[in-house]
Amino acid sequence: MFSNKEKFKESFCKRLEMLYNKSLAESTARDHYETLGQMVREFVSNDWIATNERQLASTGKQVFYLSIEYLLGKLLRQNLINLGVEEVVEEGLNELGICLTDLEELESDAGLGNGGLGRLAACFLDSLASLNLPGHGHGIRYKHGLFEQKIVDGYQVELPEQWLKSGNVWEVRKADLAVKVRFWGKVESNMENGRLTFHHLNAETVTAVPHDMPVIGYQSTTVNTLRLWNAEPSQFPIHDDILKYKRETEMISEFLYPDDTHDEGKILRLKQQYFLVSASIQSILKNYRKQHGRLDDLHEHICIHINDTHPVLAIPELMRILIDEEGFDWDQAWHITTHTISYTNHTTLSEALEKWPIRIFQPLLPRIYMIVEEINERFCRELWDETPGDWDRIAGLAIIADGFVKMAHLAIVGSFSVNGVAKLHTEILKKREMKSFYQLYPKKFNNKTNGIAHRRWLLKANPKLASFITELIGSSWIQSAEELSQLLHYQNDTAVLEELRKIKKENKGQLSKIILDKTGVAVDTHAIFDVQVKRLHAYKRQLLNILHIMHLYNRIKEDSSYSMVPRVFIFGAKASPGYYYAKKIIKLINSAAEIINNDPDVGGRMKVIFLENYRVSLAEKIFPAADVSEQISTASKEASGTGNMKFMINGALTVGTLDGANIEIRELVGDENIFTFGLTSDEVLHYYQHGGYESVGYYHHDSRIRQAVDQLVNGFFPGVYNEFEPIFDSLLGENDQYFVLKDFAPYADIQLKVGETYLDTIKWQKMSLTNIANAGSFSSDRTIKEYAEDIWRIKPL
Ligand SMILES: *Cc1c(COP(=O)(O)O)cnc(C)c1O
Q: Per-residue pLDDT tens for 523-537?
C-alpha cells in the first residue's frame, strides 16, 4: 500500500471511506491522521508478528528495559521515515490536497516522561530496533503525561496533559494478556512438605492490562514492542467500597510524577513502581516459560535492565516469583536474579537518591518487604564476615537503615552491572558517591556514556541539514552515525561552510516565526541564537544565564553606545509544580524579558524569549536553529546531559562547564571548538568538603554581580515587590550552593569570546562543522551497542 504514490492514494481513500463512510471532500484532517496511522500499523503488523515469532523461536538472549518514563514525542513522521515511505506518503497526500505537516500537528506528544531520563529510554528503543536487537520496553500508560505549561503573567501555570483525548492510534490493547498485581494484605507462612511457604492473604488486586506499541527500526524488518501497562479494577473486587477501590486502582496509571530529581515521598509513587515491575516481570516470565519451560537458566536467556532505581523492586519481585511460585531455594533464586538484573545510575544528587520509609513500604508490599529484609540481612552478614565489628561501614552500606529502604543500595547489591552515564559521572560514582560499593564489587561498575537517536534529532528534526550532509557524504551516516566524520574533509571548503550557514539561517527563520507567533516578539535571524532548554533546576543554573543577561542590559543602559554582537537568548523549561525556587527563576526570566524586550535603548542588541511548554516536538524545532548551546550546570552535578548532544549534532557550539558529557564533547572536538569555563568538578567537590567559598566576597568585589543581584530586590522589577528575595537569599544568605557568583566572571568572559568568534563567520562555521562531524559517537546506536556487548550480551537477530 506504500509501494508507490498511486497505490498509496488508492489505499488511503479506500480506507478513509471504510473507516468514516466519508468521501475525501467531506473528511477532516483528524480523519486523515487516523487513517494514515492505521495504515502504518497494518503495514508493520506482519513484521511485528514476525519479529515476535523470531524472538520466540530464537535461543539467543533478549533484553527487557524497565523504565518509569518514556518521553517519546510524536511518532507519525518518524515511523514513516523509518519505514522508508515518507516521500511516497508526503507526495501522495499532497496530490490529495492534504499536508502531512498539518496531520502531524494533530498528533499529541507522547510525553510520558520528565526530561533526560525518559527521553534516553525513547532513544534507546529506536536504536534497539534499528540495530535489529531483541529488546523491548516496559512502562506505564499514564493517562496524563507531563503537565502542559502555560506562562501567565510571567508565572508557570500547570494544566493536565491529555494525550489520549483522541485515542492513540499506535497502541494495541491486549486484554487477554492482563496480569494481577497485589497490594496490602498480610503474609502467612506455613510448613508444607518440610518447606516454608508464604501466602499473601487479603491482598487488594489490581489488573494490569498491556497496551503494546510497535517500535519500528530504521530500514530494518525488526518491530520491537513497547508494552505500557494500564491499571484497571479486577473483575470481582472483594471490597466494601467499590467506588473507592475503582478510583484508587485507576489512580495508579493516572499521572506521571512531575518531579525529576527529588525523591517523591508519596505512597502512590511506590504503588506505580511496584505495579510496573510486577506486571512486567510476570509477563516476561509467562513468555519465558512458553519458550524455555523451567526458569533455571533464566539469566542465560534474558536480561532485565532497570533505568534508574524506580524499577528496582524487580529484584525482590523476581525473587518472590522464583521462591514462592517456582519453588527455588533462596540461593538458587539469588543466583538467577543477580545474574539477570542490570542497573543504570542517573544521578549523584543526594536529594534524588530514592529511599522509602519502612512504615510506607512494609504495609503496602508485605511479601516484598520480607524479601528485601532477607536480602539486607544476608548482605550485612557478608559485610560483617569481611570486617567484623566495623559497624560504621555496615550501616553505611546497608539496604535498610534508619527506618528507610535505600533503593540504590538494593540495586547495586541485587544486580550484576552498575553503569554511570558519562565518564565523569562514573568516576564520581566509583571514587566518591558509591566508593564503598565499588571497593566491594569493582567488576560491576562500568560506564556507558548516553547518546541520542540521531535519526530523530538530525534526520527528522533538521531535514535541510540532513539532505545537505547526504549530498556531501552519501546516506550511510543515517545507519552509521560515525560516518559523519567524513564531513571533516570539508573543513576548508568555503562553499560548504557557506551552505551550512544558510541552512542554519533558514532554520532560525522558521523558529523566529514560532517565536513571533507564541510571544509576539520579533527577533532578527542575524543575531546569535543562544539557547538554554532543559528542565528548570538550581544545579542547571538558568540563574547564571539570566544574571549575565541582566548584566549585559545594565552595560547597555550605562553606555548607550555599548557594542555587542546581537543575541537572542532563548529559554525553555518546565519547573516541577512543587519546586518553589525553580518557579521563581521562571518568573525572573520572564520579568527580565519584559523589561529588556520593551526598552527602546536596547535596540536590536538583544531579545530574551521564554518559550512555554518545552517538550520533544518543540525541541525538534529549537535545536536546528541554535547557534549556542548553554550547558552550564555546576560541575559534578549533571550526570551526562543529552540536550548537549542534540545541539552539537545540529551544529550549535557549546558554552559549557566541565560537567557530564560536555567533557567528552571537548575531547572529541578539541578545546578550540568548544567554549568551556568555570570551576571543575574536583574544585566544586573540594569546596563542599572543605569550605572556603564565600559568595558575599564575589558580590562585594564584582560590581557587575552586585548590580544585577541588587536588582532582584531593589525595585528594578516593577510590581513584583519581594518576589525574588528567595533568589537573592540563595545567593548571599545561603552562600550560593551552586557557585553562580563564583562562575559569573569566567562565564561573562567566555560569552565575550563567543561574540567575537561569531563575527568571524568562516571560523564559526568551521567550528560548527567540526562539531557535527564529531557528533556521531553520541548516537544512541553507539551507546546501545556498548550495552548489548558489555552488559546484556545480546546479538542482532
Ligand atoms: C533531551 C531532552 C531533555 C534533556 O535535556 P538536558 O539538557 O540533557 O537536561 C529534556 N527534555 C526534552 C524535551 C528533551 O528532548
A: 999 999 999 999 999
Instruction: Provide the β-strand partners of residue 156.
Output: 151
Summarised one tens digit per residue, pLDDT across range 79-117 is 999 999 999 999 999 999 999 999 999 999 999 999 999
- The strand pair at 195-201 and 186-192 is best described as antiparallel
Residues 6 or more apart whose CB falls under 8 angstroms from that of 226 comprise: 70, 125, 136, 137, 138, 139, 212, 213, 214, 215
Which of 72, 112, 119 for a ligand 1 pocket mutation test, highest count of atoms within 8 Å of Cβ? 119
Domains of the chain: 467-777 (3.40.50.2000)
Ligand 1: which residue has its CA nearest to atom 7? 643
Mean pLDDT (whole number) for 323-339: 97
Instruction: Please report which confidence band the pLDDT of residue 790 belongs to, taking 50, 70 and 90 as the band edges.
Output: very high
Ligand 1 binding pocket includes 542 (Cβ within 6 Å): no
Q: Is the pTM of this model over 0.85?
A: yes
DSSP 790: I
For residue 164, the 8-state DSSP code is: T
C-beta of 616 in contact with ligand 1 (< 6 A): yes
Question: Grid coordinates standing for 226?
Answer: 513497547
3-state class of 192 per DSSP? strand
Closest ligand 1 atom, residue 533 Cα: 7
Give yes or no for a contact between 215 and 226, defined as CB atoms under 8 angstroms apart: yes
pLDDT in tens, 572-601: 999 999 999 999 999 999 999 999 999 999
Q: Which residue spans within 161-235 are E strands per DSSP?
A: 172-173, 179-183, 186-192, 195-201, 204-216, 223-233
C-alpha–C-alpha distance, residues 627 and 348, integer Å = 30
Which residues are part of the catalytic machinery? 346, 534-535, 540, 642, 646
The whole-number pLDDT of residue 260 equals: 74
Judged by DSSP in three states, 110 sits in strand
Centroid of ligand 1 to alpha carbon of 645 (angstroms)? 10
- For ligand 1, say whether the CB of 648 is within 6 Å of any of its atoms: no
Q: Are the C-beta atoms of residues 685 and 679 closer than 8 Å to each other?
A: no
Q: 729 has which bridge partners?
A: none
pLDDT tens per residue across span 714-746 = 999 998 889 999 999 999 999 999 999 999 999
Q: Is the CB of 642 under 6 A from ligand 1?
A: yes
Query: Which residues have C-beta within 8 Å of that of residue 445, sequence separation ≥ 6?
Result: 418, 419, 420, 426, 429, 430, 434, 438
Query: pLDDT grade, residue 238 (50/70/90)?
Result: low
Which protein residue has the closest C-alpha to ligand 1 atom 4? 116
Q: Does ligand 1 lie within 6 Å of residue 118's CB atom?
A: no
